[in-house]
Automatic annotation (TrEMBL):
It comes from the Bacteria. This is DUF475 domain-containing protein. Keywords: Membrane, Transmembrane, Transmembrane helix. The keyword Nucleus does not apply. The chain crosses the membrane at residues 65-90, 115-136, 157-181, 193-215, 241-257, 269-294, 315-333, 339-356. It comes from Streptomyces pluripotens. Coiled coil: none annotated. Pfam families: DUF475 (PF04332).
C-alpha cells in the first residue's frame, strides 16, 4: 500500500537528486533536498484539505489528480508560474523571461520579489475564503467549540465571508498605500495592484468553488434518487446523464483542487528564493515536495484517516486561515518561512492529538466514532 501510493514520489526523488548532482554537484544536491523538505513542511495542511475534497472523487479522478495534476503542480506552478510572473510584472516576452531566469538570476529574483504583493494578495484572499466558508458552516463535529459554535450561527448571514474578506483586503491595501506614501510614494501603485489582485483571488474562488459546489450538490441529489428510479433510468437513459453529471462534478472539483494547490504553493515558491535563485534547482526541489504532498493526499483518502481523526480537517483549515493572514502581512513585512511552516505543523499536530483523545474517550465509553458525533476535545 505504502509503495503503491508513494512509489512515484520515491522515483521522482531519486531522479531529481541525481539530476541535481549532475547539474551542480553536491551543493546542488543539498539545495534540492532542503527545498523538498521546505515544500513538504509548508504544504502538509494542503494535503489534509485536498484529501477532504479528493475522497469525494472516484478512483479515475484520483489517478488524474496524481498524473495530470502533478504535471500542472510541478511544471506549472514550480517552473512556469515564476517565469510568467516575471514576464507580466516586467512587461517582457516569455522567451526573454526564460533567458533572464537562466542567465541573470539576481535580476530574475528581484522581479519575482517585486511581484510578491500581487501574488500574496491573490493567494491570501483565495485561502481566506476557504477558511471563512469552513468556519462559518454549521457542522455536527466541532473542534474548538467555544469559537466554532458562535461563528456557525453568524454564518447564517448571507455573504458574510465575502464581506469579511473584502474588509480585510481594503484594510491591507490602504495600509500598504499609507506605508508606501510614508516612504516617498515609490510604491504607491502597488496598493492598487494589491486591491486588483485580491479581488481577482476572490472572484476565482467564487467561480471555481461555486461551480464545483453546484455540480457536487447536483450529484448528491442525483444519487439520492438513483435507487428509487433505477428501472426508469435504464429505460430513459437517465443513468447516462448521471454519469455525465458525475464527470462535471469531478472536473470542477479537480479544477478547484488545482487552484487551491496554486494558492498553497505561493509561499513555497517565494520562500525558495531565500535558499536559491536558480530556477532549475527550485523546480527540482519544489517538484519533489509537490509529489509527496499529492501522494500523502491520496494516502489519507485511501486509509480513511480523515474519518478516523475527525479534527484533522479542522486543524488544516485553521492552518489555511493562518497562512492567508501571513500572506497578506508579507505584502508589507517579511516573515520567515520557518514560522509559516511551523504554524501549520503545530495546528495540525494539535488537531491530531485532539482526535486521538476523542477516539480514546469514545472507546472508554464503549462507543464507536460513528455512534457519537461529538465528544469534548478538551478545548
Amino acid at each position: 500500500m505504502l509503495l503503491k501510493t508513494f512509489g512515484w514520489s520515491f522515483a521522482v526523488t531519486a531522479l531529481g537528486l541525481v539530476a541535481a548532482a549532475f547539474y551542480g554537484g553536491w551543493t546542488a544536491f543539498g539545495i534540492v533536498a532542503i527545498l523538498a523538505v521546505l515544500e513538504i513542511s509548508l504544504s502538509f495542511d494542503n494535503a489534509v484539505v485536498n484529501a477532504g475534497i479528493l475522497k469525494k472523487m472516484n478512483a479515475f479522478w484520483q489517478k488524474i489528480f496524481l498524473t495530470v495534476g502533478v504535471l500542472i503542480a510541478v511544471f506549472g506552478m514550480r517552473l512556469v508560474f515564476p517565469v510568467v510572473i516575471v514576464a507580466i510584472s516586467a512587461k517582457m516576452g516569455p522567451i526573454e523571461a526564460v533567458d533572464l531566469a537562466f542567465n541573470n538570476k539576481d535580476r530574475y529574483q528581484q522581479l519575482v520579489t517585486d511581484a510578491h504583493p500581487a501574488i500574496a494578495a491573490f493567494g491570501g484572499m483565495f485561502l481566506l475564503m476557504i477558511f471563512l466558508d469552513f468556519i462559518f458552516e454549521d457542522r455536527d463535529i466541532h473542534w474548538l467549540r467555544w469559537i466554532e459554535r458562535p461563528l456557525a450561527k453568524l454564518g447564517k448571514v448571507d455573504m458574510l465571508s465575502v464581506c469579511i474578506s473584502l474588509i480585510v483586503l481594503l484594510i491591507t491595501s490602504f495600509t500598504f498605500a499609507t506605508h508606501a506614501h510614508q516612504h516617498g510614494g515609490v510604491h504607491v501603485d502597488k496598493a492598487q495592484t494589491v486591491l486588483i489582485a485580491g479581488i481577482a483571488g476572490l472572484i476565482t474562488y467564487m467561480v471555481v468553488g461555486g461551480l464545483s459546489g453546484y455540480f457536487e450538490d447536483r450529484l448528491e441529489e442525483e444519487e439520492e434518487h438513483e435507487h428509487e428510479e433505477e428501472e426508469a433510468a435504464a429505460r430513459t437513459g437517465k443513468k447516462r446523464s448521471a454519469v455525465a453529471l458525475a464527470g462535471q462534478a469531478a472536473f470542477f472539483m479537480f479544477l478547484y483542487l488545482e487552484v487551491l494547490d496554486a494558492s498553497f504553493s505561493f509561499d513555497g515558491v517565494i520562500g525558495a528564493f531565500a535558499i536559491t535563485n536558480d530556477i532549475v534547482l527550485m523546480a527540482l526541489g519544489l517538484g519533489i515536495g509537490a509529489m509527496y504532498v499529492r501522494s500523502l493526499t491520496v494516502y489519507l483518502v485511501r486509509q480513511g484517516t480523515l474519518d478516523d481523526y475527525v479534527y484533522l480537517e479542522h486543524g488544516a483549515h485553521y492552518a489555511i486561515g493562518a497562512l492567508a493572514i501571513i500572506l497578506m502581512v508579507t505584502i508589507q513585512y517579511e516573515i520567515n518561512e520557518v514560522i509559516t511552516g511551523l504554524v501549520g505543523v503545530v495546528l495540525i499536530a494539535w488537531s491530531f492529538w485532539s482526535s486521538v483523545r476523542r477516539n480514546r474517550a469514545l472507546a472508554a465509553a464503549g462507543e464507536s466514532p460513528d455512534e457519537k458525533a461529538e465528544v469534548s476535545s478538551g478545548v
